[in-house]
Amino acid sequence: MFTGLVETMGTVRALRRTGAVYCLSLEAPKIAPELVLGQSVSVSGACLTVTACRTDGFDVEMMPETLSRTWFGDRLKPGMPVNLERAMRLGDRLDGHIVLGHVDGMAKLAELRGNEQTREAFFSAPPELVRGIVSKGSVALDGVSLTVIDVSDAEFSVGLIPTTLAYSTLGGLKVGMSVNLETDILGKYVERLMGHTPAKLEFPTEEELRKLGY
Q1: Where are the domains of the chain?
Q2: Same fold? 8-86, 105-194
């Protein structure tokens, strides 16, 4: 579990494939010395498991599902920056929102408004994903916890403050680029429950009641 507050930006060192498994090597000197094997790290919004540790970086492994569900399969390459956050510890303050690191799909940047200090970013996404987004609710974009400004059937907008632009990869977004989208887990559970209509209650008839002695 994560909070959506980026700890640092890492750099892709290499991406190798062995059969159906993809090994991603990252440079991350700020957090690498504290990592251990098996630990979970959010890499631009995707929860991945540490499989090798170095003093200046670490490795993770990915399945084809991860590449197909994220933009990693399209443009992940050496030298590219990624957002990194280690899993939160029990007892930590939840300063962002509950982020699982389970990417639902991708959203595409449709428009940017504002100046170099603050921007409003408009994203398009499949309607089935946008259904899980509410105005003034939370989303995670490339692992960054953001507040939704507005939402329509197939589009939503978020605000980007100077700190977000400076200390995450969102500062380098261009129109047409995709980001990893995770909607609010609470909203997904509500939608799942509301989508299942309870079985219709059948009450006994008067004749059935008489037979039962009522």
Answers
A1: 8-86, 105-194
A2: yes
Is the CB of residue 113 less than 8 Å from the CB of residue 119?
Answer: yes
Nearest to 134 by CA among 146, 145, 122, 148: 148
For residue 193, pLDDT beyond 80: no
What gap in Å lies between CA 17 and CA 110, rounded to an integer?
A: 32
How many Å apart are CA 127 and CA 152, to the nearest integer?
9
- Taking phi over 0 as left and psi of -120 to 50 as alpha, with beta for the rest, 33 belongs to alpha
What's the CATH code, domain 8-86? 2.40.30.20
Q: What 3-state DSSP class applies to 111?
A: strand
Comparison of pLDDT for 137 and 199, the residue scoring more: 137
Among 14-18, 55-59, 190-194, 202-206, the least confident range: 202-206
Burial of 98 (0-12, 13-18, 19+ CB in 10 A): middle
Q: Which fold has domain 105-194?
A: Elongation Factor Tu (Ef-tu); domain 3 (2.40.30)
Total-model pTM: 0.85
